[in-house]
Amino acid sequence: MSTATTTTGARGSDTPGSGARPRRSSSPLARYLLRRAGTSVLLLIGVTIVTFTLTNLVPGDPVSAALGEGASQNPATREAFIQARGLDQPFVIQYFLYMGNLFRGDLGTSLVTGRAVTTDLASAVPATVEIALAAIVVSLAVSIVLGTLAAYRRGLVTDQVVRVVTLIGLSVPTFWLALVSFYLFFLQLRIAPGSGRISPSITPPPRVTGFYTIDYLLNGDGVGFVDAAAHLALPVMVLSLVTIGLLTRFIRTSVLEVLASDYVRAARAKGLSGTHVVIDYVLRGASLPILTVVGVAFGALLSGTVLVESVFSWPGLGTYAYNSASNLDLPGIMGVGLVVGVIYLGINFAVDLLYGVLDPRVRLA
Hints:
Strand content: under 5%
CATH architecture of one domain: Orthogonal Bundle
Largest sheet: none
CATH class of one domain: Mainly Alpha
Low-confidence stretches: 1-18
Order of helices and strands: HHHHHHHHHHHHHHHHH
Distance between the termini: 48 Å
CATH superfamily of one domain: MetI-like
Number of strands: 0
Radius of gyration: 27 Å
Mean pLDDT: 81
């Protein structure tokens, strides 16, 4: 009898309903990240296809743009250039040639600067990231305070003032705000430095990160750091004013939704302090939607600073994209398009990563 019972118990332990669960080889977070990484790789391939296709559909003669009007009229020179660049091959073959060069880190040679596109982008991208990163940090810090304050003071004077100010920030064109800021603070008041990343009398720092402010600090150059930070102030202010309007209104809406939740009312009923409720309950509950809009805003700052960089003569990605498009520099245009696509994919992957860390429910989706 005991033998039968033992046998039955052993069999019962193997049944699905016995409570024993099969052990999985990886955690839900790891599987979630693998899925997102695979999706990002597929999207990156799609970015290369779209970038290559649209760039080659641009009207104009890339051979004439590359060789100039004189050399392009020579049939032998023109034919040699076409064969060297593979322009006589079918479109699909040209794409695979482009991908082969891309895997080797070769984005071609810029027709404007005469340098490798990777070299130009290595200088332009950090300049843009520096002002975009500073702008998103300033915008987020101000927006969290204003948005939370407006939500807590809903319908009162404070809320109305914040909403009007943010509406003005969203309505003012960026290029107009940049021109007015440059004219007022530099030409009239003389309290801001001129254009560029540093003054002509200042030597650029030894390259470590590509961010002048950080590289000056790493080099122990306080004078250079102050000069670079002063040149950074106006572009960051212009970009921040526009971004603050977007983030503040979104944060206000998210905080209002969380304030109406049961767990926030329960926290208040427990007698917790207002600061404790705001930090540990309200902002934490509203963090996921806020994180999404911050990622979108940061991507927009990185890829949409053309006008601001033009006004302040900032040698960043926007200026490089404008010069490439103006001169029909196809390698430069494709390089910029690829970088912008990678930036958006990288930001979205980072947001997905933070989603999975902050909300366990997302890992099982």
